[in-house]
Amino acid sequence: MTQATSEDPWSVTETDLREQMRSLRRNDADAAVVTVAAVDGSAYRRPGAKMLVPADGEAAGAVTAGCLEEPVVDLAQEILATGQPRIEVFDLLDSDDDSWGLGLGCNGVIDLFVEPLDASVDRPLAMLDNGDPATVLTVVDGSGDTPIGSRTVVGADGTREAVPDREPVPTTLLDAIGDTIDRVHGTGSTQTVDIGSATVLVDSLQPVSDLLLFGSQNDLPPLARLASDVGFRVTVHSPRGGVDESTFPHADTVTTGHPTTITDSVGTDQHTYAVVMSHNLVDDRLAVETLLTETEVPYVGLMGPRERFKELRESMAEDGVKLPKSALERLSTPVGLDLGGGEPLEIALSIVAEALAVSNGCEGGRLRDRDGPIHPRIPE
Predict the structure, then answer these.
(1) Burial per residue of 83-122, b for 16 or more beta-carbon CB atoms within 10 angstroms, e otherwise
(2) pTM above the 0.90 mark?
(3) Which CATH number is 214's domain given?
């Protein structure tokens, strides 16, 4: 699995960041969390992006392309000293504004919410670890009686929960923004809502996506490494014995068994993406058939040319197995995006890129050909 080190704090994924938060909480260590609350214009990271600043240690994660990291770390240290969360606005459009010694003119205004890491994160982290979405509602600004930092968490079923170390968001505010909560919950999106004298950050968090790799050949390790690097939780299910975690050091879990037992390695269906690549026609057929008929995983990539899939379907038909259209729509073969490369690492990049695009609800085309902003916007 990916392990961000002090030598490479920039490369941490959301998976890493959450694990570091859990570790800091277990050790009762002081740290600050920085969240992009809102962006007006263009910015490197969108709302919801986070950075973790331990009191003793190097910052992890990124909320900009690097141009704000030093002042943000200084700001986080201030919040650690006072214990009082606050929102700070960085206007990077104004080249004459030297409030932060910037004058960058980076085409955006960024609102950053900075808060101490405390017990209020334990419940949403537990929900995510259990495979459930969580939406964190936090008062980030205002002049009313509600303290900044007040927090309520919305569970998978919509239940609202108070959390330790924070005042709950008043019911009147929750009811007033109920439509926004319903629209954002479970989407992985983040936005702020101004209501009366308060501003509430609606931060929808999704469980980490799993990439399930079926096979054990030499082309699997580079794929596992790239998948881990971009933040997938990687599971390898091998139809052959003699493999373990040392065989695939970048996998989080390694299992072995008959192809039809691949369902045991599927986490939450809607957050699992699978690639079948054992290079054995019989094993691949059984794994594909099992995934498409016994699970609801949204993406099953199959390694090999179209002719091979034709053979696979003919084999199924001979046994009376006919995949419905809804199942075939989840299948991608030949697997991967058209990147034009033929080296093993290029093939792995193509496959991981397609799985990542599908997990993000995107087609994987060129950004220059896309109309409008490159990042989706939530309508007000």
Answers:
(1) eebbbbebbbeeeeeeebebebebebbbbbbbbbbbebbb
(2) no
(3) 3.40.50.720
